[in-house]
């Protein structure tokens, strides 16, 4: 399995290239896509899929550009008129080589937020890691106030806590959860979710001020 993190200089943004047996997927690509092309060529991986965790307001996502360069299919969560790519269904799975990527609808940070569970079928069917986008961080949780005060409480209570806890409880306790961005005042919320579902291993990817 190939796993590469690409950090955007000056932004709190990380993207990922995941590959196996000559095939690859990119999660949350940035606009300048040469880095993914170069990584794919270096590792001899053809980029087949582009997965978005959620809509981003702090940088321009490069899904369209990367798809034009590679003919990769673009996928994102439900509930928005994206006008590009295809909408995922909760539990939808994709194969790249020996890897299986399963889409998990994890609303909270945004209504359409998606997480991606990665299993290496050459060693077992259980997920070995989860990419949670901005839905959940180590010591933090994604903001839920983008839809205004009237809706933010419902997103936190009904979606972020309940739904995330339910979905993360499906992941084996010893598996790795990959998280992105910075920590701040929502630490107790994220910690309580992770502790309640029994997660013990975290990878904190801090990427900006």
Question: How would you briefly describe this protein structure?
Answer:
The protein is 23% helix and 32% strand. By secondary structure, the chain is α/β, with parallel strands linked by helices. The strands form three sheets. A six-stranded mixed beta sheet has the order 1-2-3-4-5-6, with helices on one face. It has a six-stranded mixed beta sheet with strand order 7-8-9-10-13-14, with no helix packed on it.
Walk me through what this model shows:
The chain has helices at residues 34-43, 63-70, 149-168, 187-196; strands spanning 2-7, 14-20, 23-27, 46-51, 73-76, 86-87, 93-96, 99-105, 114-120, 127-131, 136-137, 140-141, 176-180, 201-205. By secondary structure, the chain is of the alpha/beta class. The protein has a single domain (2-205), classed as Metallo-beta-lactamase, Chain A (4-Layer Sandwich), CATH 3.60.15.10. It has a 6-stranded mixed β-sheet with strand order 1-2-3-4-5-6, covered by helices on one side. The longest helix has 20 residues, at 149-168. The radius of gyration is 16 Å and the shape is globular. Mean pLDDT is 75; it is low at 152-161, 179-192 and 200-209.
